Amino acid sequence: MKNSSHIPIFKFLISFFLLTYVIPSFSQTPVLPGWHSMIPLNMSQNTCFNKAVKALNAADLDDIRTQDNWTTSGINNYLRASISCVSCGDKTLVDVAVAGANGRINEAVRMRDFLKDYMLGNPSNNELPCTITGTYQTTYKKMRLYQEGNRVYGTYEHKDGRVEGRLTGNVFKGMWYQSDGQGELELTFSNDCRRFTSNYYDKGKWYSDWTGNRIADIDIGAAGTYNTTYKKMRLYQEGNRVYGTYDHKDGRIEGRISGNVLKGMWYQSNGQGELEFTFSSDFKSFTSKYFDKGKWYTDWKGTKIN
C-alpha cells in the first residue's frame, strides 16, 4: 500500500522540474535558481493560488494564466515567472521560478525576490504612508520620479538619465541608465518621502554620494496602465510630454498634453497616424479619435487600472 504522505512531496518535485525546465519558453533563456518553501506555509492551496495571481499582478506581469490547477505564470518583455502551490495537508508548499532573458539577470533576480517576499507576506513589503512621486533636486541634477503601486520609474537631467525598479517599504531597488552606462541602484527614502540617500554601482565600485530633496509634487495626470480597445497600454508623463507603449502590433505613442487632451502620433508595425486622446477629469479613462488609412476613427477607448 502506498504511503499517501509522500504524495505532496512527489508533486512538489514535479512542480520544481516543470517550473525550472519546462515552463520557461524564451529561447536560450538562462534559468535562475528558484525559491522553494522547504517548510509548508500556513495557508490552504486555494488561498496560496489566489495570492500567487495577486503577486504576479503586483509585479506588473502580463498574460497571467493557469498552467494547471496549481501553477500560475506571467511574462513581460524579458522574463517569465511561475508560482506553484502544492497541497500538503492543510498547508501548502510554494515554489517560485523565474527565467530571465540574456542581459537582464539582475532584473530577473529582483523579480524572483519580490514574488518570494509577496508570498511570504514579508513585513518589509509594508507601504510608506506617502508616495515618492515628485521632483527632486539631486546630486546629479533634477530628477522626476513616478510611483505606481510598488513600481517606480523616472528621469533625471544628467546624461539622459533614467531609473526604474520597485519600492519595498522605504527602499527603492532598481537600475540607473545613462548615455555612458548603467548599473544597480538603491535609494532609501525618509519616512515623509521628501529625501533620499543612495547606494549605486558604477564601473566596478559602489558609491553613496547621490542624494536628493523633493522640491515639488507631480500630478500623475495621464501616467498609468490602461486596459484599452487595443490591449494593455502604459503611459508615462514628463511635464506636458506623454509617451508609452501598448500590446498591439508593437504599438507606441508620443505627444503633448494640454489640459486633459493629448495630441500626438501612434506607431505600429503596420503603420502610423495622428492621434488625439481626451481624458476624463480624473484621468481614469479616455476616448479618442485617430487617423488610419485615410479615415478618422473613434473606437479606441481606455480605462486606467493602476
What can you tell me about this protein's structure?
This protein has 306 residues and is α+β, with helices and mostly antiparallel strands. It folds into three domains: 4-123, TATA-Binding Protein (2-Layer Sandwich), CATH 3.30.310; 134-216; 224-304. Helices cover 15% and strands 50% of the residues. The protein contains three helices and 23 strands. The chain has helices spanning 7-22, 45-58, 105-120; strands spanning 35-36, 62-68, 71-75, 79-88, 91-100, 134-138, 141-148, 151-156, 161-168, 171-178, 181-189, 195-202, 205-207, 212-216, 224-228, 231-238, 241-246, 251-258, 261-268, 271-279, 285-292, 295-297, 302-304. It has an eight-stranded antiparallel barrel with strand order 6-7-8-9-10-11-12-14. Strands 15-16-17-18-19-20-21-23 form an eight-stranded antiparallel beta barrel. The chain has a five-stranded antiparallel beta sheet with strand order 1-5-4-3-2, with helices on both faces. The longest helix has 16 residues, at 7-22.
